[in-house]
Design brief:
Largest sheet: 7 strands, mixed
Number of strands: 7
């Protein structure tokens, strides 16, 4: 009987650790994506993060494919000063859905400053052992 309890305990611990590792990996990718999109704008990083079939939706409703999204991000001259906010992760099979509220002061290329308050939903898919973004949707918060 002790052996049964030991096996059950170990399998539950291993399951939690596997889930924690998965969560950590997805959160790291999500955080890197937000940092790259709103700060560094590094195309090489975006190339690694984005799946080939990416759909990237802005809060304006504009939807871009992978190439359009990368071009739009790297040529965006706005500078963002963001407020840290948590990420929420849910898993379904080999996919993960991450929700994040992004609040920032946006300084545009013309010098004007505005407030940005958007909900970002990211869908990540496990592809060749790595997490790739397949869908990003931003909506304006009130």
């Amino acid at each position: 009987m002790k052996l049964v309890y030991c096996i059950l305990f170990l399998s539950s611990v291993l399951g939690v650790n596997a889930q924690s590792k998965k969560t950590t990996q997805v959160l790291a990718k999500s955080s890197l994506l937000i940092q790259t999109v709103f700060s560094t704008k590094d195309s090489a990083t975006l190339e690694k993060l984005f799946a080939k079939e990416l759909l990237y939706e802005h809060s304006s409703g504009k939807i871009e494919n992978r190439a359009e999204a990368i071009k739009g991000i790297i040529y965006n001259k706005s500078v963002y000063e963001d407020e840290p906010a948590p990420y929420n992760v849910a898993f379904e099979g080999d996919s993960a859905v991450v929700n994040h509220i992004f609040k920032a002061k946006e300084k545009k290329a013309d010098g004007s400053i505005g407030a940005l308050n958007i909900n970002i939903r990211m869908v990540w898919k496990k592809e060749s052992g790595d997490w790739k973004l397949i869908r990003r949707k931003a909506t304006k918060n009130q």
